[in-house]
Amino acid sequence: MPAFSTEAVAAQLSALGVRRGGVLLVHTSFREVRPVEGGPLSLIEALRRALGPDGTLVMPTMTEGASPFDPRSTPTYEMGITAELFWRQPGVVRSSHPGASFAAAGPEAERLCAPQPLAPPHGPESPPGRVGALGGQVLLLGVTHSESTLLHVAESVARVPYSVPHPCVVERDGIHQSVMIYETDHCCRGFRRMDDWLRPCGLQHEGPVGNAHARLSNAQDLLRIAVEQLEREPLVFLCPAGAGCAECDQARASVGRAREPE
Ligand SMILES: [Zn+2]
């Protein structure tokens, strides 16, 4: 299989609808995109070329949270090779959340990566929340909506009744300590229902990028549609009770339970 050139991938991204000069939040699986000449770094270059010098590229660089977080050295956890290489590039800014950091490059990078509340990790005042506020786009590159951090922003906006605590090491007054951070956590397979809601409205552009299937939407459209669905049915993204999904069962069990103070 011939490898895609950087130019070819950049052209695919533009054809899909990536806005020049815009803000783009990307979730990616390079395994689905490859082969690209030059590997994941060329994919990053293609994304930046499609955005142009006035565009801002954003990726989640979440970490395990089991050890103290240093944005200059802590590796990502299950974010893929593209995000792992992205935050290590010169000029890329990384936010400071100890578990849910993001990296960004471009004119809006500092604003996107400004300090955020510890909880919820993906609220309106978080990097993905700010992508929405700035009128950005969300690109799912070889992954589905189940990987989308923006849908956790929608859960936060809609104030879903479930949240699950996760231990996370933070530094307070120079001392490392483990705190519980409440997140709207579940298996996230239910996020894939977004396809059924976005496609009929023409709010999701789909096409090839490299060998991957890509989905592109406006962050504000995603938030509006998801919040509408959540307001109608607050547990719409959870697997049905009795479906055998331990993560969604845990989220269900948290409904109505008082949170412990941080
Ligand atoms: Zn589930």
Structure overview:
This protein is an alpha+beta fold and 262 residues long. It is 30% helix and 20% strand. The protein has helices at 6-16, 30-33, 40-51, 81-86, 109-112, 127-133, 150-157, 194-198, 219-232, 246-253, and strands spanning 23-28, 56-60, 93-94, 102-105, 137-141, 164-172, 175-183, 205-209, 212-218. A seven-stranded mixed β-sheet has the order 3-4-2-1-5-9-8. Strand 3 (93-94) and strand 4 (102-105) form a beta hairpin. The longest helix has 14 residues, at 219-232. It is globular and about 55 Å long. The protein starts with 5 loop residues before the first helix and ends in a 9-residue tail after the last helix. Bound molecules: zinc ion. Zinc ion binds next to helix 10.
Largest sheet strand order: 3-4-2-1-5-9-8
Please give the alpha-carbon distance between the first and last residues: 52 Å
Low-pLDDT segments: none
Q: Note the main sheet.
A: 7 strands, mixed
Number of strands: 9
Mean pLDDT across all residues, rounded? 95
- Assign the structural class, choosing from mainly alpha, mainly beta, alpha/beta, alpha+beta, or little secondary structure: alpha+beta
Tell me the overall shape: globular
- In terms of DSSP E residues, the strand content is 15-25%
Number of helices: 10
User: What proportion of the residues is helical, as a percent range?
Assistant: 25-40%
Q: Which assembly state applies to the chains in this document?
A: single chain
